């Protein structure tokens, strides 16, 4: 659902540029393939922050194409995406979420801040308040 596919392009300088069809705002770089893969997760989370700043829903990932690599997002990040998209569906602002949950503004901001690690319990509580339940599955790596 939110495992985004990225592709590499050789840059004019040594290294690889990283792009994502589903997140056209994403722009990253790595010295080599391994470094670019590590940088891709940070680039995705930074791009998701742009969507929040612009009050836009976050798109689901499309199926990978030949030559693309899948980036599996951390569970906390996926929970934040679902929380944010549910808020967008209901035309809610962060302040509305804070009132609903009875929390301070800073706490509500962190729940949808992709560059801040939130506790899963807090995200589950927020999702439950919006009528959602988090379900986690385990697959072979």
Structure description:
By secondary structure, the protein is α+β, with helices and mostly antiparallel strands. The chain has 2 domains: 4-71, Double Stranded RNA Binding Domain (2-Layer Sandwich); 75-129. Helices cover 43% and strands 12% of the residues. The chain has 5 helices and 4 strands, in the order βββαβαααα. It has a 4-stranded antiparallel beta sheet, covered by helices on one side.
Low-pLDDT sequence parts: none
Largest sheet: 4 strands, antiparallel
CATH class of the largest domain: Alpha Beta
State the end-to-end CA separation: 17 Å
Number of H- or I-type helical stretches: 5
Helical content (DSSP H or I, runs of 4+) = 40-55%
Number of domains: 2
Name the structural class: alpha+beta
Report the average pLDDT across residues.
94
What are the main properties of this structure?
single chain; 141 residues; Double Stranded RNA Binding Domain; 2 domains
Task: Please outline what is shown here.
The chain is α+β, with helices and mostly antiparallel strands and 141 residues long. The protein is 43% helix and 12% strand.
Topology (SSEs and partners):
Elements: E1 4-10, E2 16-19, E3 28-30, H1 33-53, E4 69-71, H2 75-89, H3 94-101, H4 105-111, H5 120-129
Antiparallel strand pairs: 1-2, 1-4, 2-3
Helix pairs in contact: 2-5, 3-4
């Amino acid at each position: 659902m939110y495992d985004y596919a990225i592709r590499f392009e050789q840059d004019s300088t040594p290294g690889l540029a990283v792009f994502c069809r589903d997140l056209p705002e994403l722009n990253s770089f790595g010295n080599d393939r391994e470094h670019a893969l590590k940088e891709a997760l940070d680039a995705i989370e930074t791009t998701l922050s742009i969507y929040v700043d612009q009050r836009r829903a976050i798109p689901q990932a499309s199926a990978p194409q030949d030559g693309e690599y899948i980036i599996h997002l951390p569970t906390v990040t996926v929970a934040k995406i679902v929380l944010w998209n549910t808020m967008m569906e209901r035309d809610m602002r962060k302040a509305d979420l804070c009132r609903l949950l009875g929390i301070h503004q800073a706490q509500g901001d962190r729940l949808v801040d992709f560059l801040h690690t939130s506790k899963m319990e807090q995200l589950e509580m927020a999702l439950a308040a919006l009528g959602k339940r988090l379900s986690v599955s385990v697959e072979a790596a």
